[in-house]
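PROTOCOL LOG
Step 1. Enter all chains and additional molecules of the complex.
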Amino acid sequence: MTAAAAFHTAADSVAPKAPAGSGVTFDRVSVAYRGAVVLKPLTMTVAAGEILAMIGPSGSGKTTALRAVAGFVRPASGRIYIGGTDATDLPPCERGLAMVVQNYALFPHMRVSENVAFGLKARGAGRDLIARRVEESLRIVGMSQYSRRFPRELSGGQQQRVAIARALAVRPRVLLLDEPLSALDAQIRRAMVEEVARLHADLPDLTILYVTHDQSEALTLADRIAILKDGELSAIGRTGELYHRPPNRFAAEFLGRANLLPVVVEGKARDHGFVGVRIGDAKVVVSGDDHPAGSRRLMCVRPQNLTLTGDAERSNSIEAELREIHWQGELTHLVAAIGESILRVVATRLPNPPARGDRLSFFFSPSDANLIVEEAGV
Amino acid sequence: MSDAVALAPRAAKVDLAGWWIAPPLIVLALLFLYPLTLIARAALIDDSGGLNLAAAFEVLDSRAFLDALLNTAEIAVASTAGCVVLGLTLGLILAFAPFPGAGLVARIVDTFIALPTFLVTLAFTFLYGSAGILNGALTSGLGLDHPPVDFLYSAWGVVLAEVTVYTPFVLRPLLAAFSLVDRSQIEVASLLGARPLRIVRQVILPAALPAIVAGGSLCLLLTVNEFGIVLFIGAKGVITLPLLIYDKAIQESDYQAACAIAMVNVALSLGLFGLYRFAARRLGG
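Step 2. Run joint prediction.
Step 3. Record the structure below.
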């Protein structure tokens, strides 16, 4: 049995008063501050054991939604269910949750072990259980040798590990992560993202609601992503699906660079789930359904899915004039023009770099492009 | 050679700057140190002009002095404890459970710092004095012959007045410390299962400890030296060190005794001031 598996045996769990189960359901939850609505009625479910990332720009309502789950803000309307039971009126201390925040929020006058033991003591755990859980939690985050230190004696990354151990020690029904890596510098952040991914692989039953403004963290960690904008759910879906086939312009652009080219639908293609579209003079096939012939759409294709050489898979080709070329070591960025639209291309290997002004053919696979209704979503 | 020439005027400037320190030092010495020296001298030298330690020790060994010392300590400790408890309660409510108008309440409490101490005592005599509002209402309401509330003319009256006057001295640094407590620590603690009392005990109070010590020691310092309130209440048998010094010097014209007691008072004050500075430094750091 691995350390993590042993960690998750429920026999000695500290019983919080929160209901059993570990999914979260938002049922038309809205939040208002002094009459101003900051979260419009939100309905979505976080399944037990999944990592759901809520992303969006500042003021999108993602942190407000998380704080509503925690019980720090009271919904103006709607209900919040944790593990299938209505938790809307429960105080935070009875929800059976734990949270990790951007600034770690470790208790500065307590040693690492006392920080980790805090929640267990608050929940009335026995001394043996506390000792065992503290030891297990610190081992999982690789901080066992620092248990006697004070938070001020640790680096930012180490403090965040302790904060995660403190949250894990109470075996929360749902772990809330509020921009947990934003205060760390880029290199440590990348390492910590991988560590959180490993942690979830070791603790597959743990439900994580992860708020971030960093799309790469969300893409790396999340099973599903919910994109919020202006207090509203703009898109939600499985991470890969949302990235490759974004339902609207905002989702397409927020999850990474995207080419959004205006096209006219020609009609259904031979293969099921694909349609033919016209872009300028070129005709290409893209994935999509239910787009009537003659309708105007935006074709979304990611820069790294365009190449300068075609093959059986990359059967679509469009012609564009090269405007700029930027070599950046591992990658080369190309900027080309198709009529009034700009086409961005990222190439990993260019044996014969083209020159500005060249007319080039760019190839892509039909399954790497999808159609977006211009006004869809928000 | 040219270096030496260049350095010479600079050295002269430094000497001049050194001399500028002298006048303020002399003023300080005349204003503060000289009177203290005079008191120390008066405590040790009798009317004949000779050194007389026996007289000073006799005063310090007297029943009156020991009673006054005990009274001073009891009243100061009780008042400080009252200030800390009231200041903490008010501070916690104002900082963590704010209600509409909480800011105004904090400012009104602050204004007590600006008021003369005897004013509160005067107000108390109107409220709780033998002919005050409370006793007036009780005697006429219940048909009593004597005013039933008479705590004001006891050590309790002094303590109540001092708590009223000096609580803002605890509340102010506490509110400053509370405003620095990371709210996310409180939120994380509550999600981990901690109820409000545990959060106050284990998260908020440790963070505010230097402020409590600083405010408390300042309170102790001020209450040890409080004169106006004790004199104004005029409670029978409640003689504190400052009042005893006043009695010896003004009523009995026994300046040597007054100065000997004053030296004890000064030592006590300096000790408490040291404690206050130590705590304030920790609060600042």
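Step 4. Note key features.
The two ends of chain A are 47 Å apart (CA to CA).
Residues 66 and 176 of chain A are 7 Å apart (CA to CA).
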